[in-house]
């Protein structure tokens, strides 16, 4: 394991990305677990005064955990730009950056709507943002590149071709996500074929793409297909992280 890590991660310069991913995923899992526990306790009407885990309130103001995340991002970013530490402190800094990013993106929907929508349908946008971040960080950690182009190919194919390929890849991925096909878009980041297929298929009726671009006839087709197929397994799993209903504050 040590030789593999040194060869494929440390010597390849990917170890900070790996530790950033680990910090991000672990922090998100712990944070969602804590918020779900607090919400469950509130819905039962339990007394929180003696609880070990509860909302953070300072001067009567509920401090959302995105605040701590943003502060951690600012601090770690400033240290990286000023100090640029070597191994192993580069990995420590990357892991802390991942922690801050997870705390901030877990409340992405609150940035977007400028209100507490954590436990509403709109709050699912936070899960989408987290999944996109995991896909990007995962790609950075494993060193995947769009269309399978590596540094050798880039030199042979030319900068313009590589740039056009990357931009095309990004366009298909963004269209796929805007159409509400998040899983296809996530898979399309390392494997562009998924993004191409997803971008050409009918958008989901609740998606940004459908609401902005579909007329009544096409929207009816999208709604009919969505009702016929129902939520995908991916959507059902995602919804477990956001059990919608009565809204409660979170730490």
Structure overview:
It contains 13 helices and two strands; from the N terminus they run H-H-E-E-H-H-H-H-H-H-H-H-H-H-H. With 251 residues, it is mostly helical. The chain has two domains: 1-143, no CATH class; 146-244, no CATH class. It has a two-stranded antiparallel ribbon with strand order 1-2. Helix 2 (15-44) runs antiparallel to helix 6 (124-142), helix 8 (159-178) runs antiparallel to helix 9 and helix 9 packs antiparallel against helix 10.
What features would you highlight for this structure?
251 residues, mainly alpha, 2 domains, two-stranded antiparallel sheet, 13 helices, 2 strands, 68% helix, flat
């Amino acid at each position: 394991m040590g030789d593999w890590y040194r060869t494929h991660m440390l010597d390849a310069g990917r170890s900070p990305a790996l530790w950033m991913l680990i910090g991000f995923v672990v922090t998100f899992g712990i944070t969602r677990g804590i918020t779900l526990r607090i919400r469950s306790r509130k819905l039962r009407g339990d007394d929180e005064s003696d609880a070990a885990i509860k909302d953070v309130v300072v001067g009567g103001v509920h401090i959302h955990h995105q605040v701590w995340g943003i502060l951690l991002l600012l601090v770690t970013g400033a240290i990286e730009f000023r100090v640029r530490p070597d191994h192993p402190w580069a990995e420590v800094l990357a892991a802390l950056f991942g922690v801050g990013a997870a705390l901030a993106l877990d409340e992405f929907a609150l940035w977007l709507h400028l209100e507490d929508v954590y436990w509403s349908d709109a709050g699912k946008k936070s899960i989408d943002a987290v999944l996109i971040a995991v896909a990007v960080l995962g790609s950075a950690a494993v060193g995947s590149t769009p269309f399978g182009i590596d540094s050798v190919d880039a030199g042979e194919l030319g900068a313009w071709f590589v740039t056009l390929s990357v931009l095309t890849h990004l366009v298909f991925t963004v269209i796929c996500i805007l159409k509400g096909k998040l899983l296809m878009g996530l898979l399309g980041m390392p494997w562009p074929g998924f993004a191409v297929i997803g971008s050409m298929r009918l958008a989901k009726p609740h998606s940004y793409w459908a609401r902005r671009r579909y007329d009544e006839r096409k929207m009816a087709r999208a709604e009919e297909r969505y009702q016929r197929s129902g939520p995908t397994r991916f959507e059902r799993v995602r919804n477990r992280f956001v059990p919608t209903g009565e809204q409660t504050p979170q730490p």
